[in-house]
Write a structure and sequence with these properties.
Layout: E1 5-9, E2 14-18, H1 24-37, H2 47-60, E3 66-70, H3 71-74, E4 82-86, E5 89-98, E6 104-109, H4 118-131, E7 145-148, E8 157-161, E9 167-176, E10 185-188, E11 194-197, E12 201-204, E13 225-228
Parallel strand pairs: 1-4
Antiparallel strand pairs: 1-2, 2-3, 4-5, 5-6, 7-13, 8-9, 9-12, 10-11
């Protein structure tokens, strides 16, 4: 008896087994938490399996409830079926398909479910974080607001990854482009082609150069969105 699930990749080689908390309301936040931590996903290399098991092992405690095995041995354990992930996203949710004599005849897709409430996801992220060793916790980073990069204002505090891979908040002190090593932004055009531009981007007071923060491309917010501390 349990609330089981199996998580695997498109290759269906290795898999993570959850004896409890196998519902999408735990699995989706688990994947999101691993993504926010900057872990490499299982589809990239074996470290992803270890980090995902680490998060769930800390969450469960004890020495049971989570395991790693070959997918061909685990397959569908019942309850919540199998989540096939690509990166840190669920690509498929499947379960065994049976004939009238309850023989396995293949796989069936489990119907899509609605988007999880944002408040629930945030609560689960905090729960995972609280179970981690203190030095590995994301802390107040989990309270950040995600906004389009174009909406970031001077004075906002933006969460940036430092050299050691930790998240740290730095104030935005200007917008522009570095004099050298300019940052290209690619946008999908209506005709299907991809346009490349070099728009002004916010930069933060992280890596200093005689009081100038605009020189270093690592001070600039990359990507289409930014995570900022709540305003006001």
């Amino acid at each position: 008896m349990g609330n089981r699930a199996v998580i695997t990749t498109k290759e269906r080689d290795l898999a993570l087994y959850l004896h409890w908390n196998g519902g999408r309301d735990t699995v989706e936040p688990l994947l999101k938490y691993c993504e926010l931590q900057g872990y490499r996903p299982p589809s990239a290399d074996s470290y992803g399996w270890a980090r995902m098991a680490q998060v769930m092992g800390n969450f469960f405690g004890g020495s049971l409830s989570v395991g790693i095995d070959l997918f061909k041995r685990l397959r569908d354990q019942g309850d919540n079926g199998v989540y096939v992930i690509d990166g840190w996203k669920i690509a498929e949710h499947i379960a065994f398909d049976y004939d009238s004599d309850y023989n396995v005849v293949g796989w069936r897709e489990i119907g899509p479910s609605g988007k999880l409430p944002e408040a629930h996801v945030r609560d689960m992220l905090r729960t995972f974080d609280a179970a981690m060793p203190e030095e590995l916790r994301l802390g107040e980073f989990l309270d950040a607001d995600e906004v389009p990069v174009g909406d970031v204002e001077v004075g906002d505090e933006v969460w940036m990854r430092t050299v050691g891979g930790k998240w740290e908040a730095f104030p935005v002190v200007g917008k522009g482009q570095p004099e050298f090593n300019r940052i290209a932004v690619t946008v999908d055009a209506p005709d299907g082609k991809r346009d490349i531009s070099y728009p002004d981007l916010p930069y933060v007071a992280m890596y200093d150069h005689d009081g100038d923060f605009s020189w270093n491309s690592n001070n600039y917010v990359h990507g289409s969105t930014a995570r900022i501390k709540p305003r006001g």
